[in-house]
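Hey, I was hoping to borrow your eyes for a little while. No rush at all, and the record is pasted right below.
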Amino acid sequence: MTFFLSSNSKQADCLNGQATNALMGPRSYHPGGVNGLFCEGHCSFLSDTLEQSVMQALATIAGGEVNKAF
C-alpha cells in the first residue's frame, strides 16, 4: 500500500513490479470510505472525502507528523 491514490479511487492501482514505485490506494466494499487499522492497534473509518495530503500523512511517520485527528 503506497497511499498514492485516495481511498476507493476511481483510478485503478498501477503496479510496475516494484512496490516502492506502485501507485496504490486503500480499497474497500464499504460505501463512503475504508476501515483503516493503525499500528498502535485502533481501527477508524477513513472517508472517501478525506484530503489526499491527510491520508498520506496518516500513512507515514517520515515527516514527523503528529496525528491529532483521533
Remarks:
- The first strand starts at residue 33 and ends at 37.
